[in-house]
Queue: 2 jobs
Job 1
Amino acid sequence: MFRYYLVLGLKSLRRAPVITALIVLILAVGIGASMTSLTMFLVMSGDPIPHKSDRLLVPQFDNGLMDGSYTAGEEPERQMTWTDVENLLRDAKGLRQTAIYGIYPTLDPPGDTVQPFFESGMATTRDYFTMFDVPLIAGSAWTAEQDARGADVAVIGEALARRVFDTEPAAVIGQRLTIDDRAYTIVGVMGEWNPTPRFDRVNGSDATGRPEQLWLPIRNATSREWRNNGWTNCSGGEVGPGYANFLKSECTWLQYWVELERADQRDAYRDYLKAYVAEQKQLGRMQRPENNRLHDVREWLDYTGVVSNDTRMATWMACGFLLVCLVNVVTLMLAKFTARAGEIGVRRALGATRAEVLQQSLIEAGVLGVVGALLGLGLTVLGLELINGRLTGAEDFYVMDPALIGATLLLGVTAALVAGLLPTWQACQVRPAIQLKSQ
Amino acid sequence: MLTMTRLSKVYRTHLIETHALRGIDIHVREGEFVAVTGPSGSGKTTFLNIAGLLEEFTGGEFRLDGVDVRGLDDNQRSRLRNQKLGFIFQGFNLIPDLNLFDNVDVPLRYRGLPAAERKRRIEGALAKVGLASRIKHYPAELSGGQQQRVAIARALAGEPRLLLADEPTGNLDSQMARGVMELLEQINAEGTTIVMVTHDPELAARAHRNIHIVDGQIVDVVKPLAQAA
């Protein structure tokens, strides 16, 4: 009978075409709006590195001045000073650790075909690639020795490799690229890597943005006296002239990450941070009361507001909008099913049980739901396209994965079935004797 | 085939009680063609609805083809209706967006017959009412008389034990009405029991027996002259 009811459901689409079109349209708009918001919310609130997100941690200290600017209980800085980065890297208390800051040097490709251009990049340590599962499709990260001495080596992205050298990634390894008038040897090429949301450097990089295409050893970048291309806070004290004084200052400008071997080592690392801050206090730094933090990836994304309150509010509002749409669909379905009371009366007279009328009506509502969901899916894709179009460098950031597509269809059918419950129940209550006489 | 004993029906609201049938006794034998007549509001449609298991009765007894229908739940009544009864309505009550084949198919679907058997019955029933060539047509493409023939085919396809007809010619002109009546007589002659509610004395006169209802009571049971002769 399911097939029979399905055919009847499809035929019913042609009946009362205006009401049917309105039901489908309202359902589609509701689903489109809610799924667009939900997709954005899920993408931004997803775990970008689920297998180790509880082992990748961001430490924070409060290194601000104990003066009029201090307010008890305020949040510590999200970034670190160079002094702390060097100390923590040297102590190496985690399985791996890295520090990151943004750079924006000039690239001068070999030959004359490509003109010199500015390129956003990152200065970091070799552990960065392993910690964040960065896929290298050719070569490898620079060595520990190159890391320590700040060698003139670079890892570049595949897109940059093809643009600059116009060849396959493997052929790029060992080639030289001039960066700010100095030749660097390419040691690795990164393949497709789209952590969603972008989490490795929330401060200074857009969480909806794509990773950079250029990485250099952090000590190479500091030796070249490159300033941070991103947020730098120097409210922690006076900064003397020159780059050397900047490095010694209490300016916070570096993102620091540590990877622990096991999640249960977190308390031990917290103890280490406590001891480190106590030691720094003895050296005259970190005058404020200890205010250390240690966030894992998900906590960090939450802490830094990657999923903004606006996104949360928009999602709730879209769900509310879907509810309003459903109320309208209920009304329209009541009208559609009431118009069919005569047919239901005939079917009941000819032997249909209430359960059979219920099945037929629910399948009919389900068919409307599927059509509405398919249209809603189209509207969702369109909505995400429009939003992606407003993002720079991330045209496919908000995309629906198969699970979300399935969820959209399921939402459509469920919404239609929920909206169809009252009309369907009413249809089951049709008294055939009355309907047959009134035909 | 159909036995009602002291059967009554009372419609109740919180203000009034309306006695639609007042303890009627009716017995219809197998193979009979019975006409039920009476003025508007006399209770003849209520009788037909109860006979067709479309409404419950308030008191008395009702046996349909030997089955005591009192106490049957809605599902059992639906099944009994589907297996033993055929309906012909004044307004035809065809489903407009189904073609003739699918309209006649409706009661057979609820009986769960296999596709081949349903096809055989549908084509046979439509052939019997002279509409075999219009199997893919829709009701709106047919005249009133033809639509009533489709309704008859739908009733016949289920091979009912009892055919209930409610003013079957009420919406037809005299020529079409004659054709439909001849068809009903032919069906009855082939063994199907028919109970027909009608206002039309001419049609009633062609039945084996007339039951006249006034104010919910049977006032007369007559054998028409044509039948008596």
Job 2
Amino acid sequence: MPANSFNGQTDYGIGIGLRVPHYAHILEKKPVVDWFEIISENFMVDGGRPLEVLDEIMEQYRVVQHGVSMYFGSADKPDRAHLKKLKALVKRTKTPWLSDHLCWGSVDGTYTHDLLPMPYTFASAKRTAEKIRQIRDFLEIPICVENVSSYAEFHVSEMTEWEFLTEVVERADCGILLDVNNIYVSAKNHDFNPYDYINGVPHHRVGQMHVAGHTKFEKYILDTHDHPVLDPVWKLYAHATKLCGVTATLLEWDDKIPSFDEVHNEALKANEFIDGAKAAKTVKAKAKSPEATRA
Amino acid sequence: MKKPAKPRRAIPQPKIVAPVGLKPPPAHPPRRLATTDDLVKLQRLMTNILVRPLTKTDGLQPTWIDGRPMTEVAEEFIKPNDRLSAFERLQLYNRMYWFRLIDIMHDDNPGLRAVVGDKKFTRLIEAYLAKYPSRSFTLRNLCSRLAQFIREEPRWTAPHTSLAQAVARFEWAQTLAFDEAKLPVLTADDIGKTSPERLRLRLQPYLSLLTFDYPVDTYVVAVKQRNALRTEASNAVDSARDAVRQKHVTRPRRERVYVGVHRLDNRLYYKRLERPAFLILQALAEGQPLAEAITAGGRRVKAAQVGSWFSIWMELGWLCLKK
């Protein structure tokens, strides 16, 4: 959905992640980019160069915050100090929505700094949804939760990943950041059909999408974010766009980062699929119209 | 006649220790997950496994803390598929944990790496994180207890423990200087409003005052310059690159130095301080009133000298009002 309550009723186009190797290029050349996604944790500091760069970027561009350490699925209670820092950043950036992952990564205050897969159970969905609600109430901002790529599944799981995602977002009444690359990676690692996943989630809750590159190994696929987006992921993206509508889309490129232009051009490829989805919708609408029926 | 080879000092392997702050895992994973307590147990078990050091061949440890084979433990809670066993799936996460954190600490500590060498550095980091896994949501704080660990367990850095600890403190101070808060700086008006006997100052949070038994600042600068040269040479022909790689920065000799690690216009700087100046700043940081802090510099310090130090510190924005 282009604008909905989960992305703050915004209609953002194609963005890219703000990364250190591109700072100089962006600040000097001021390229036209619809928006930048920032990793919240990189700017949850009290001063110095990170905040100076952020302020300069915000003079020219719209930014959206994306987190990697809120761990909605960790059994631990939300950390107040963490939330306070995050809220201060939310106020600074005026991000229209905030995203983080549907995963866990800490226990007893010890952090793995990884996005670990959830056990897909009703109890953990309930706990996770409660936590998302608490965090949203504190931050006073719409939240989208992102599906992660995974390499392991638990015996205790009671449902599929997309059923779990649906259970969580319906209970929490929050949005989805649909990462189509992660769906593809997990589909290959766990032998499910990625189209079943995309068909199975509540499309009206999708507030943002991610695309990225991955790396194939003999027995599994890793979500490496160090390549251009591969064709099967673009096809999934096209399918998701048909179902969810044209949605704020972001390309993630976090390792072996090439030039700014290369990353941006890769992201702009999404336009082809967006145009395709729009054209398909127009044809469908014409076919359904009374004039078309009469003809 | 060929010289007999020196016996090589073996690099100790990290022992498997109970991580500080992490509660012990349950004997077995929950059979079903009905409550938040069950979720805690599952997450505690998996975290305890992930933070265990890898084997010499970068694999998951084959034996669990209760003596059972890890394959058996993994099979209890992780599903296998037709390509990977439960053990192999868990091993992927165990490897990613260690590879990621070692990479980050490698980048954050070029000086410490140069002191102990790359192989020993990796062992040191494994031992450090095995004892002190991260307790912060941000990777920025990963090295916060490294200097303390080096002091507690000198065997990882022997025979250069003293230098290694100094460099670790210096490199952590750079992290603080990079992004700690900047408070409103002290103005001449502020000084005029309160008598020196009552005026209490504080230092900027991004400023660290450090004393070392080695000229750590010049050493780390030399290491960084060498590394920058390596990067510059990365497109050169192989022979030139090898020549650069072999260039060694000699470890410094003992010398007492006083250093302020700070930032100015959001760039990192190191400033050597004279001992009396350092003592005055330290007294201010401890909360002593201005007049008393100045006496910490000693009787030999002349008023003009103190005045010139204060004008430099105020220009650098180091001083703030203590409220």
